[in-house]
Amino acid sequence: MGFKTPLYDTHVAAGARMVDFGGWDMPVNYGSQIEEHHAVRRDAGMFDVSHMLSVDVTGARVRDYLRHVLANDVAKLKDSGKALYSCMLNENGGVIDDLIVYFIDDSWFRIVVNAGTRDKDLAWLKRFSDEFGVDIKPRNDLAMIAVQGPNARAKAATLIGQYADEALQLKPFTGRQLGEYFISRTGYTGEDGWEVMLPVAAAPKFWSDLKAAGVAQCGLGARDTLRLEAGMNLYGNDMDENLSPLESGLTWTVAFDPPERDFVGRAALEAQRAAGVKRKLVGLILDDRGVLRGHQRVVTPAGDGELTSGTFSPTLEKSIGFARVPAATGERVEVDIRGKLLAARVVKYPFVRNGKPLVS
Amino acid sequence: MSNIPADLKYLDSHEWARVESDGTVTIGISDHAQGALGDLVFVEVPEVGKSLSKGAAAAVVESVKAASDVYSPLSGEVIAANDALSGSPELVNSDPYGAGWLFKLKPSNAGELQQLLDAKAYEKVVADAAH
């Protein structure tokens, strides 16, 4: 048996199909995964993301520390509550994890990391913490529920009483502590919504109250199709320690400026950039009938590549995916599905944002 | 609990087979299988006229989550395939023993029918899979 979130019993009682995800017993769906997906695109859905780990990083030099440990630059964070997406790299420029970091105040930042990488992330964070005199505190006392969809904020706001107005005024990619809730206007679906961190003991009631407010319970299955449509990478599928952000579609998350900022992995990324990045991550749409899946072979005139993620897109009603292909790859490729070469197109992603298809 | 009709034969890989009055055999996947796969989005059925041997990969069912091979419970020639599934793969979820059938065979070795599981034996397979 794997680790259990504070909502494990709630999921089982709701009839969820439970699967192992990074060592955690998590709900993959409660009924129809496609209906859960549509609930988020059209109305409001919620996900138990308590398997992810919040880490508080505190100390007088916390900003300097994070400017060294993260590939994106927390110097961009000027207003309290503002969040930033970043990779954490090893010296070879490989991605240890991708994460979100919140600026709380000058001596306190909060990081949210993936479930499957929590131990190695903590070890990596601690490797540099003494040098900067910062304290690394995993917040195992917090659960996290993501409420996502065009009506998600309005529905969730009915549950937080006196804090509703303040929470509804949060700008995108900003979070704030409101009573026992840390509410941020972030997510992994391409829809508006919140991610709510709250004490473990309060999570089951908050979940059932959201359900009563008309928020659909959604599993990891829908979470995966939503994030893929939204063009968001999944750690372990689309990038890992042996791949750099530059070959993972994440160049935009690396702050090379200012040039004097010495972040871990910088030298390796600069060398890779100087030598020319050989591969790139692209979005694919399958024109033929079938379903793209991770590890399928992609055939291009510039050489072979490989699917890193693939699924059926419930919004587009076509199969979509991400593939790592030679840098010179053009628009037309073929994908080897059970020995047949099927036609696919390279497209810009996101595929879907705020309920609307962006590609066809 | 999944629905396991008493009048069908099964494979432990979750296919069902129904002997029709004319001796042909209709094949599909069980209610348990469709539930485990989740929402189906793509079904590849065998071509009519193809000869299958017992246990051969005959069709592919893909849900949002994963692709699965469907094995032929019997040897024989494919005499029909359910073309409605190309536009409506979800029929396998909503009606796995009816409109969600996959293909029909003219069996070449009727003796193989005796090797299939009856409903009771298949029920045990499903119960064991839950543990």
Figure out the total of helices of chain A: 9
Averaged pLDDT of chain B, please?
Answer: 95
Any idea what the shape of chain B is? globular
Main sheet attributes: strand count, strand direction, barrel closure of chain A: 6 strands, mixed
Distance between the termini of chain A: 42 Å
How far is the N terminus from the C terminus of chain B?
Answer: 14 Å
Report the β-strand fraction of chain A as a percent range.
Answer: 25-35%
Give a structural overview.
The complex is a heterodimer of chains A (360) and B (131). Chain A is an alpha+beta fold and 360 residues long. Chain A is 22% helix and 34% strand. Chain A has helices spanning 8-13, 33-42, 62-69, 118-132, 152-157, 164-168, 203-212, 220-229, 266-275, and strands spanning 17-21, 24-29, 45-48, 53-58, 83-89, 95-105, 108-113, 135-138, 142-148, 175-178, 181-184, 193-199, 216-217, 279-286, 297-300, 303-313, 318-326, 332-337, 340-347, 352-353, 356-357. With 131 residues, chain B is an alpha+beta fold. Helices cover 20% and strands 32% of the residues of chain B. Chain B has helices spanning 31-37, 84-87, 91-94, 119-129, and strands at 9-10, 15-19, 25-29, 40-44, 51-52, 57-63, 67-71, 76-81, 103-107. In chain B, the strands form 2 sheets. A 6-stranded antiparallel sheet of chain B has the order 1-2-3-9-8-5. The longest helix of chain B is centred in the C-terminal third of the chain and has 11 residues, at 119-129. The A-B interface holds A 17, 28-29, 32-34, 221, 225, 289-291, 293, 311-312, 314, 319, 338 and B 36, 38-39, 41-42, 44, 60, 62-67, 86.
